[in-house]
Amino acid sequence: MYFLSVLGVVLISGYLMLLTMGSLNFVSFIDFPSLLTILLFEVTILFSAGLLKDFNNAFRLVVRTKRNAESAVSASELRRAVEAVRLAGKVSLVGGAFALLFQIILILHHMSSPEKLGPMLAVAILTLLYALAIALLLLPLESKLRVKLGDVTEE
Length: 155
What we know:
Layout: H1 2-21, H2 32-48, H3 52-63, H4 75-108, H5 117-154
Helix pairs in contact: 1-5, 2-4, 2-5, 3-4, 3-5, 4-5
């Protein structure tokens, strides 16, 4: 079910591109250094918080069903996964805002070449767009983990 939310974000993004540009032009929305910046923020902060392993486990815990679970999931394991996903969402937003402001400062230093301002500003905004998309995709993951945690604590 989690993959439906990923597919939904992709389809809605395509729809928005179609509305604004009249055609799907995905190339304008691809910038690997911007995505790498956000992912580096994520990994660094999760690692320093000691929650990187718990973040990876969050995906396993969401996909796990009662039928294929070999052992019961502890409430502690679920709490750590919820905290890791919550932190990842916050890091995504704050990291995206930090990167955007950092890039805008660099753009302002290049005001002497106006032909570069548009593309540079677009890349800066893409970083924030990626951060928002990651935070959006983490919301259903966190919600599903919270529901599982509620089920475990009720038992």
